[in-house]
Amino acid sequence: MSFWTGPRGGSAGGTGLATRKSENLRALESEAIHILREVAGQFERPVILFSGGKDSILVLHLALKAFYPAPLPFSLLHVDTGHNFPEVLEYRDRVVAHSGLRITVAKVQDWIDDGRLTERPDGTRNPLQTVPLVDTIAEQRHDAVIGGARRDEERSRAKERIFSLRDGFGGWDPRRQRPELWNLYNGRHAPGEHVRVFPLSNWTELDVWNYIEAEGIELPAIYYAHRREVFDRGGMWLTAGEWGGPKAGETLQTRTVRYRTVGDMSCTGAVDSDAAEIAAVIEEIIATRITERGATRADDKVSESAMEDRKREGYF
Amino acid sequence: MSSSTSTRTEHQAAVSPTEAHDLAHAFHERAPERKLLRFATAGSVDDGKSTLVGRLLHDSKSVLSDQLDAVERTSTARGLDTPDLSLLVDGLRAEREQGITIDVAYRYFATQLRTFILADTPGHVQYTRNTITGASTADLVVILVDARTGVVDQTRRHAAVAALLGVPHLLLAINKIDLVDFDEAVFDRIAAEFDEYSRELGIGEVTAIPISALHGDNVVTRSERIDWYSGPSILEHLETVELTDDAAEGPVRFPVQLVIRPRSDAFPDYRGYAGRVAAGTVRVGETVTVLPSGRTSSISGIDTPDGPVDEARAGESVTLLLADDVDLSRGDLIVGGQGDLPEPVTEFTATVAQLADRPLRSGQRALLRYGTREVRVIVASLDHLIDIDTLASLPAPSTLSLNDLAQVTLRTVDAVPVEPFRPRGAVGALLLVDPADGTSLAAGMVGNRRESLHASEVRRPAALQKDGRPA
Predict the structure, then answer these.
(1) Could you tell me the pTM of the whole model?
(2) Contact A151/B315, CB-based, under 8 Å?
């Protein structure tokens, strides 16, 4: 499988289960492309949040399709917590180089070093991403920030608009949301504000995987089953690393695991899995009784409103 | 140990690997023809709407165990004996605190037969704009009534909104039927009353189903306790209701989003017009007219995300290539067919719903969004208010307030090729935007919607055999 380069440029072979896009996937693809083209039509300085995770890979893939054969009219932005999986950073750099794209990497470490951010006692850097994100959006005067968030991920995300207005601090106010009717997306905003755009709003985790299979999109290897040294913290298999694990009392063991989401290593858990290729991953997702974020994200469990609270502060 | 431990161990525990494999294959085999149904729920505050949505998700196995765990934890913390399924759907802190739904939420689930997008809308009258939002993209609206109270103001209001927006299917869910002793006469009386009202509104099609959302009767599985009713459950109806593709019929409407001009070595002369087919089916060779300029050309090629094709239907995002070099940019409308073209005009009437807190008044300047077109507009006059219960005309107020429905006359600085609202594909839909800060002031539909509605009937669904086929 190779990263997609244009119509008929990718391998659509699949691995047996789904060899063509269903009507549903084609409808979702058309909607996402329409949204991405509206961003190009309505904004001056849009940027795609690109982490090397599957949802942002999908957004980039759809964006390349939306403007083909013209070049992508967006740059990329990655907020690097400093605790990212090396395989994911390698993937990110390879895709960017291959596609001739521009990327800005905002490093949380830089903000810590110059005192704009303070390291948390628990070492988790996921919540620290918000400040570098909002600062970089302001510095680079981005008026539209495109992300891969989906409404099926979490219940406050289920309330999110496709064009989501953010205030001068990047904050989300659920009571200030604009009604969004038909497919008329309103990107107008006051100076200083910006709009977050979510082209995958109507996709589910299963849609994402089915589409990745149908299109033959390459993902970082950690999405598939592999042997890894992990330890248990708070009921999750975390990977060992310089970010601060394992601590005393936490024992390393080697297990066969894969990741359902990719984020900061300090709060992204692996799941036990033998699914080494995509058809097996899809079977596993159909059979699972645990949501993607429930299985692998420690930071969503902090409180009942953890995601809503972070979004209010400017988190994507 | 903490509940998150069980999270990990249960990850694959729901079904055996063999069952999972069979399930995956059955699901995938159906995938190519599985269609999408978008539906919205509406109902008065205490009619059990959240319970119905929670029940629908729960009984169709669309709720995963960690979500259910969270609901159980919160329910227990609040001293409840049974899990409050409405917590599944109320996503905002303020909603959970107040126990009401404030904003639209979208939920996703799939069965072997269909994929569903559910717009879960609030019932309070002050959130009518959200009901309109949810209904704007819906193929079907579920209106919930309490069997003990029958049709109330909110029922009429939600039916009127559905009628205005041209939603093709209505499902009247007569809930809490267990609290009236499963009485068929009660069901028939409510269905008949709603029938009369919906005829007046000109609603397309209504199906009435007796249910108990709390106990799950006729929500996902058919109830044996309601023996006089032999039609489908709500989910069965959602899975089988006929989806017409009227957006793909009739002449082509293609609002141009962007001009694609690579100017690269590989594509030195490529010039394509990117957009999404709003209505009709566009074909290579077809003669088209570009509005507002009125120039004609023909389609020389259609590029899609998967390469060139001969035709593209409503809903598809494509790039059109034209045989002639015509002056064309974002905001223009490519229309097909030889007959009646939408005529560019600078003054037209529209039915609008006020979305914003700030009032809309006669003489007000705004930006009009129509398709991909953006043009300056003045609200020339507020012609009359529309009674949201009956859709009757009332005298015009001096300003429109939040949630008001009204007919207005709009005057634009440049001519816009507007045409009467057609719900599928949202041709004729518009937005009024405040140019100062971008606030969406009002959403509207071109033309006099009240006159364009036509009559129909409420029906009890045909009796079904055990296999779901009509008897």
Answers:
(1) 0.90
(2) no
